[in-house]
Structure formats: structure tokens, C-alpha cells
């Protein structure tokens, strides 16, 4: 099947590669849907993953199951009640069929960078399962867009096998869904999708047979159709051993009984070929028996395409074993001149991973199943025959129980001559769903065309550019972050809220208005020349705008966040804040990467690539050091000491830090600076028990900090410690100075800083008990006094900043004390 010979396949390929439009690719059995998927996987420029509703379908599509990738539990997924649990959480304790596990970090990276989600065998996907996928994608991407903004390619034929829904499950789901089929998904109804129906049938070439199959498929089987097909009814038909017929049954037990009895009837030795299983390959998805019992003369079917250059067989090809021993098998197929020598093949259970160095989505092999690519093929179930092609088949559809089952069975045959009915068909054995029929009629009336494609291409380019220059989502994320902070303010400290408010305000005032005007220009330029790749005027405007927006993004968002600080002792709140911040980081990182690309060019494939990588590895807005040690703008060193003391006490007692002192208590201490136990009792969260246990330790930390850092606060005369009056530390320094010791000598003997001793002596200069002369050089004292006289309202910090490192805080205090003495006398 060549790409260029099929206009519908070409159209589907164009929609996938050059638009963001969701696509339902359908078509009758044998129209090349599976081949299209395999070709797409080989060379699509978009980052994609392939999922399917069942393990067997996933293996056949070289993908993974929907449930395993999206961590969705089995059972009905009730809209609006789906809950997402962490992978570490005990999900069994909840026992909720609507539970979804949180994705791991690697899967989150894949989801954030995803361009295209392919769902094979979409006819078997229930509406509630598709909505669960929507919920996961929204959680990790854009919550405001269906499926998080990921493009869907849904492949399948609604006239074939339908989703499985038990009566008790449907009793729950029918309140929310019109039908169990995927097209009743609430999320899908919120989005638009185009339908492309493949017309050319590759499997059958006889037009009469094709017409009969179409009548069955479209529920147009009249009496004449049934009569025509029943001409193939041959009661008691027993094919010859060399004819290569396979029986298609409705139930597993029927197929097994036929295969077992046929094998037992063969004479000769029975050989057992045991599968080799490595790694993770669940038994549920084994492509053939793990213990394959075969004999010479057994009819077998190949269950894999030949991986060798010879391509001697394909999945579904029927033949007979003509030679067999413990190591090898030869199978002779009708019409082949030479037998096929069969060797072990391998199947891989896949997992999608992210390459750390390239940030590309890659397929990782979880497990390998190695076995002869054969299974007994006198019979197979209709369900397992989907996707296969047979030259000769015996169909027993009298026990048909599901929509589309008869059509799937009949359409496996290449031609009418190779079809035998073991029981006659009736109109009652052909089951079709009227809802499917109505939906199919709607999509047939509005097939996608070239005009739709061109419109979708333009919209895709516009969408990419609008996402880059639109700041509404970022504004919403910032508003949410502020709301989280305000709701948990009692447990948070730092300047974080102030910074976020500032960032939000500046985006709304300085960036958003410019973005709105610029997007109006972009819209006009695209309208004048839809192909952005050749629209040089648009490219020039994009390049200039990208420079401006990138510079302002750096100045207004990145720089302020680098100075933002926050701390909390509540792990849940910290995680909530960090998660919200992480989503903001993804948005601004993607914008920055997109803008950097637009500075040079606008090539969609490259544009998608840089966006995806930025989503996987977003830039850090806050450094971990700032987040964890930020504390408060007031006395950060004291805050850090108290936090460290609290952590030590908590670890020694085997309790959480907040049980020692809460964040609010720490903040209260920093604000009030209590110096005795009576003051400490007024601190929020410190009662009698905590005062008794920790009071002396806390007061000692505060007092030491204040003395060593010369914090100018009114020291009470009766600072208590262990019930005793604390000695007057200033008086001790005064007595030592009066005895003739220098400031440096006093500091050395007392183990205190020189500036601390100078602060002590300043007290006595202020009341005239010590003269400034002898403590400070006259020239330095005059320079300090002159500056203070010129700046009478300045505080000590401003004086220190103005006079520089050649003047200490202690020296400033000495001069200020002396000037106070002069002014008061």
C-alpha cells in the first residue's frame, strides 16, 4: 500500500502532521488503518504515544494499554468524582473504582511534552474511560482545554467490536452518558474532531462480496443479502487436511474444543515448545500459548509478521506443519512452493520513557516474550481475529452476542469463495447498534476535505502563536498561587506573596495589553498570508516581538522570583505551593523557549520540539536554598537559628518540627523578640507545657543573638533565666573599662564582639559617666558627627550604609550616644 495512491490516507497524514485537530480515522475492515498507524510510528515528526484498550490490541499496535499508561483503575469512571491518588498511597484503603493514581515523574514529563495521542481500536473504548484520560491530561497540562490540549488520533471502526460494559456498570454510567461508545465522552463533546473514512479496501477485491459486507456493516442486510450469504452454508462441512480452513467461533471454549480434538486425532509425537519470558510480560497479553503443543500435520496460524528480510509469512497466514523436531518447525502454506522454516520470534512489552540527554520520548522494553510465532488454527474466536486476514474460513455465528461480531467474522475472508458458514445466518444473528448507525450517518455526511485541512493548518499556526503571546493562563496560575498563600497564611512566612502580587500586577499592566494588541496584528497578518512558513512580514514582526517579550519576561517574572522566599512547616502546604509554582515554571519556560525560537524563525516542527523540551525540563523559578531557608525579612539569622534548634529538638524527641513550635509561633517570636518568660507566654502557641520545656532555651537563643548583633531594643532590667536575675552585662563591661582595660581586651576576656562592648559603653556615654575621648579617634568621631547633623532623621543602618566599612556599628553608637549627651545638657 503506497501513501501516494490513497487520497484519504494522504489527507489523514496531513491532518496529523500539520494541524492540532482531533481525528477519527475509520474505515471498513481491510482498508489499511493498522498499516497507517505503523507507518506513522516510524516517521511522524510529532512526539506521540500509542495506546489501546486491551493488552492484545496494545501489543499488536506496538503500544501500551490505556489503563497502564494513564494509571486508570478498571471499573466505571464516574464523571466529576474521579480522584487521583499518589503512587505511594494505599489505593486499596479507598477501594474506589474511579481512582486514578498519580503519574510518576517520567510519565509527567512525557505527558507535558506530548503532541499526539494515538488510541487504536477506539470502537472498544468506553466513554467514561476516555473522560478519565481527559482528566489526567488536564491535570498535567492545560486544565482549561479538552485532553489538556493534546491532539487525538482515534483509529477504529465502530461497526466492528464494541466496548464491554456490564449491566451493573451501565446502571451507574447511564445517568451520565447517552451510550457507552467513545463518541459519548463528555470531553470529546467539548472538542471538535474531523472524521476521515478510508474507502479503498485492500483485503477484498470482489465487488459483489464487498457489497454484501457493506450491507452487513451498515445494518442494511435485507432478505436478499441473507440469502446470498447463506449460499455459503454447508452443513457438516469437513475440509480436507490440506485445504487450510480456519473456524471462527463466538466463544473461547468453542475454539479450544475444536483445536484440542483436532490435535488429539493426529498420530505421531507431540512436541512442546515453551516460551521464554524475560522481565515484565503479563500472561494476560501473551500473543500465543506459553506451552505450545504441536504435532506434524497440525494446522497452525502465524501470529506475527516475519521479521527476517524474506518476509515469508504474515500475521494470520494459515499453513500445516510438515516437519517438526525439538528445535525447528517447517510450515507449508497453500499456494507456496517452498515450506517456511520457522524460528522463534520475540514480542516486546513496551513502556514510554524520556531520554535524559535528548528529552525525546523513547520506547523502553519492559519485558520480552519469545516463542514460535504460531498457534493452533483449526479455530479461533472472532474477537481475536480482528485485524487478521484469511484465505479460507468457516464461520459459526449462530451464538453471536455482540454488535459487529458477524461483520468482523465475515470480513476476515479475502473472497466469498473462501467463506463457509457452518450455521445459516439470520437477521437476528446480525446485531447492530442504532446509536452507532446514527453517529456513522452523521460523520458520513460531513467527511473532512482539503478545505477543512487548509483551515486547520492556519488555525494550528495561529494557535501556536497565540499560546506563546497569550498570558491569560499564566495570570490564572498566579492568581491561584496567591489564593493558596492567603488561605494558608498562618503556616507560611516569607516575601513570596508580595513578589507574586508584584509579578501579577506588572504582567497585567505592562505585558498583557501589549500582547493583546500584538495578537490582533498576528491575526491580520495570518489572514493576509495564511502560510506562516513563507510569510516574511509575519516572521519579521514575530522576531522583533519575541525580543521584547523575552526581555520583559526575564525582567518582570524571572528576576523578582529569584528574590522570592517562603517557608512552612506543613508538608502538604509546601507541596501545594511547589506544585502551583511548578505549573507556572512550565508555562514561562515554554514561552521563553518559544520566544527564543521565534527570534530566528518560525518552523513548526522545530517550534514543537523546543516547546516540548522546555515542558519536560522547566527552568527553576526559585532556588531550593531560598525556599528552604528564607524565613522572614526581620532577623533572618535569628529565624535560621530557631529553625535549626527546632529541628534538633524534634529529631531528638521523635516528633514533627511543628509540634515543637509552629510556623506562626516562630513568626511571632521574630516580631516581638521576647526577653523573659512572662513575655514568651504571650507568643501564639506557647502554653505552660511548652514554656516549661523550651522557654529557657528559646530565651537564651534570642538574648545571645541580640547581644552579638547589637540589636537596639529596650532590654528589661529583670531578664529571667531559671528563676534567677540575669547580671547586667553592660555594667560588667563598664567596670572592666573603668579598671583600665581597653575595648579589645574586654571583648577578648568576655568572648564578645568588639562592637558589642562598644554598644555597652555607649550606654554610659549617653548618661555622661564615660567620655568619648580615648574611645574613638577625634577625626573619625567628627566625620560621623558631621554626617549625623546633616541627616538628623536617618537611622543607624542608613548611617552605616552612607559612611561605609571604615566605620563600625559600635563606633556609630558611641558618637550617637555622645551627641545625645551633649543635646540633653
Q: What would you note in describing this structure?
A:
The N and C termini lie far apart (107 Å). A hairpin with a 2-residue loop joins strand 25 and strand 26 (724-725). The strands form eight sheets. A six-stranded parallel beta sheet has the order 3-2-6-7-1-8. The chain has a five-stranded antiparallel beta sheet with strand order 16-15-14-13-19, with no helix packed on it. A four-stranded parallel beta sheet has the order 20-9-21-22. 47% of the residues lie in helices and 13% in strands.
Overall average residue pLDDT: 81
Sheet having the most strands: 6 strands, parallel
Radius of gyration: 39 Å
Total beta strand runs: 26
Helix segment count?
Answer: 32
Beginning-to-end CA distance, first to last residue:
107 Å
Reading side by side through the largest sheet, how are the strands ordered? 3-2-6-7-1-8
Low-confidence stretches: 85-97, 625-631, 717-724
Shape: elongated
* Broad structural category: alpha/beta
Give the percentage of residues in beta strands: 5-15%
Helical content stands at 40-55%
Amino acid at each position: 500500500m503506497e501513501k501516494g495512491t490513497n487520497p484519504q490516507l494522504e489527507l489523514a497524514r496531513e491532518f496529523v502532521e500539520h494541524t492540532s485537530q482531533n481525528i477519527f480515522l475509520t474505515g471498513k475492515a481491510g482498508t489499511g488503518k493498522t498499516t497507517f498507524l505503523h507507518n506513522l510510528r516510524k516517521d511522524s515528526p510529532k512526539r506521540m504515544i500509542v495506546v489501546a484498550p486491551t493488552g492484545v490490541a496494545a501489543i499488536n499496535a506496538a503500544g501500551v494499554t490505556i489503563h497502564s499508561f494513564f494509571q486508570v483503575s478498571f471499573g466505571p469512571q464516574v464523571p466529576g468524582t474521579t480522584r487521583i491518588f499518589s503512587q505511594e498511597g494505599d489505593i486499596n484503603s479507598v477501594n474506589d473504582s474511579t481512582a486514578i493514581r498519580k503519574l510518576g515523574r517520567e510519565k509527567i514529563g512525557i505527558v507535558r511534552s506530548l503532541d499526539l495521542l494515538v488510541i487504536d481500536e477506539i470502537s472498544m473504548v468506553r466513554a467514561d474511560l476516555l473522560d478519565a484520560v481527559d482528566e489526567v491530561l488536564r491535570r498535567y497540562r492545560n486544565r482549561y482545554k479538552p485532553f489538556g490540549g493534546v491532539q487525538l488520533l482515534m483509529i477504529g471502526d465502530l461497526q466492528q467490536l464494541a466496548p464491554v460494559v456490564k449491566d451493573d456498570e451501565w446502571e451507574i454510567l447511564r445517568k451520565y452518558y447517552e451510550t457507552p461508545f467513545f463518541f459519548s465522552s463528555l470531553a470529546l463533546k467539548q472538542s471538535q474532531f474531523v472524521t476521515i473514512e478510508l474507502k479503498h479496501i485492500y483485503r477484498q477485491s470482489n465487488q459483489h462480496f464487498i457489497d454484501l459486507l457493506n450491507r452487513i456493516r451498515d445494518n442494511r442486510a435485507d432478505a436478499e443479502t441473507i440469502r446470498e450469504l447463506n449460499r455459503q452454508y454447508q452443513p457438516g462441512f469437513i475440509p480436507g487436511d490440506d485445504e487450510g480452513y480456519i473456524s471462527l467461533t463466538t466463544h473461547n471454549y468453542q475454539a479450544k474444543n475444536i483445536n484440542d480434538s483436532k490435535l488429539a486425532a493426529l498420530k505421531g509425537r507431540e512436541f512442546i515448545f515453551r516460551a521464554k519470558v524475560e522481565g515484565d510480560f503479563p500472561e494476560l497479553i501473551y500473543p500465543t500459548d506459553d506451552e505450545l503443543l504441536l504435532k506434524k500435520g497440525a494446522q497452525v496460524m502465524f501470529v506475527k509478521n516475519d521479521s527476517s528480510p524474506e518476509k515469508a509469512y504474515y500475521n494470520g497466514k494459515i499453513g500445516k506443519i510438515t516437519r517438526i523436531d525439538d528445535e525447528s518447525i517447517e510450515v507449508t502454506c497453500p499456494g507456496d512452493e517452498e515450506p517456511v522454516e520457522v524460528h522463534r520470534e520475540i514480542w516486546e512489552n513496551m513502556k514510554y520513557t524520556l531520554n535524559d540527554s535528548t528529552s525525546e520520548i523513547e520506547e523502553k522494553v519492559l519485558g520480552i516474550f519469545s516463542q514460535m510465532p504460531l498457534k493452533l488454527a483449526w479455530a479461533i474466536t472472532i474477537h481475536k481475529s480482528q485485524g487478521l486476514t484469511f484465505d479460507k474460513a468457516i464461520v459459526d455465528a449462530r451464538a453471536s452476542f455482540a454488535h459487529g461480531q458477524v461483520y468482523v467474522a465475515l470480513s476476515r475472508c479475502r473472497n466469498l469463495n473462501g467463506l463457509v458458514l457452518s450455521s445459516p445466518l439470520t437477521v437476528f444473528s446480525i446485531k447492530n447498534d442504532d446509536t452507532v448507525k446514527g453517529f456513522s450517518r452523521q460523520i458520513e455526511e460531513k467527511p473532512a476535505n482539503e478545505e477543512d485541512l487548509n483551515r486547520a493548518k492556519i488555525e494550528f499556526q495561529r494557535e501556536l502563536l497565540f499560546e506563546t503571546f497569550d498570558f491569560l493562563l499564566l495570570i490564572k496560575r498566579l492568581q491561584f498561587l496567591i489564593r493558596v498563600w492567603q488561605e494558608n497564611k498562618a503556616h507560611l512566612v516569607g516575601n513570596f506573596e508580595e513578589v507574586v502580587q508584584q509579578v501579577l500586577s506588572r504582567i497585567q499592566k505592562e505585558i498583557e495589553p501589549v500582547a493583546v494588541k500584538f495578537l490582533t496584528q498576528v491575526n491580520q497578518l495570518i489572514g493576509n498570508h495564511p502560510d506562516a512558513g513563507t510569510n516574511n512580514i509575519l516572521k519579521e514582526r514575530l522576531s522583533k516581538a519575541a525580543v521584547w517579550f523575552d526581555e520583559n519576561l526575564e525582567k518582570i517574572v524571572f528576576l523578582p522570583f529569584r528574590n522570592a522566599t517562603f517557608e512552612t512547616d506543613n508538608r502538604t502546604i509546601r507541596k501545594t505551593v511547589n506544585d502551583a509554582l511548578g505549573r507556572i515554571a512550565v508555562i514561562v519556560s515554554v514561552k521563553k523557549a518559544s520566544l527564543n525560537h521565534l527570534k530566528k524563525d518560525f518552523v513548526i516542527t522545530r517550534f514543537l520540539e523546543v516547546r516540548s523540551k522546555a515542558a519536560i525540563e522547566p527552568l527553576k523559578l526559585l532556588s531550593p536554598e531560598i525556599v528552604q531557608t528564607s524565613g522572614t525579612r526581620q532577623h533572618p539569622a535569628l529565624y535560621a537559628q530557631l529553625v535549626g534548634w527546632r529541628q534538633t529538638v524534634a529529631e531528638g524527641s521523635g516528633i514533627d518540627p511543628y509540634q515543637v513550635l509552629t510556623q506562626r509561633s516562630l513568626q511571632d517570636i521574630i516580631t516581638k523578640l521576647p526577653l523573659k518568660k512572662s513575655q514568651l507566654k504571650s507568643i501564639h502557641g506557647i502554653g505552660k507545657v511548652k514554656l516549661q520545656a523550651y522557654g529557657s532555651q528559646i530565651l537564651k537563643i534570642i538574648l545571645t543573638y541580640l547581644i552579638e548583633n547589637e540589636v537596639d531594643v529596650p532590654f528589661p532590667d529583670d531578664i529571667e533565666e531559671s528563676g534567677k536575675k540575669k547580671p547586667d552585662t553592660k555594667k560588667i563591661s563598664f567596670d572592666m573599662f573603668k579598671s583600665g582595660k581597653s575595648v579589645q581586651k574586654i571583648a577578648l576576656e568576655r568572648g564578645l564582639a568588639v562592637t558589642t562592648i562598644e554598644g555597652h559603653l555607649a550606654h554610659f556615654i549617653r548618661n555622661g559617666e564615660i567620655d568619648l575621648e580615648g574611645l574613638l579617634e577625634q577625626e573619625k568621631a567628627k566625620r560621623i558627627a558631621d554626617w549625623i547633623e546633616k541627616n538628623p532623621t536617618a537611622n543607624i543602618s542608613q548611617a552605616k550604609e552612607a559612611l561605609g566599612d571604615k566605620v563600625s556599628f559600635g563606633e556609630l553608637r558611641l558618637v550617637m550616644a555622645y551627641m545625645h549627651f551633649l543635646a540633653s545638657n
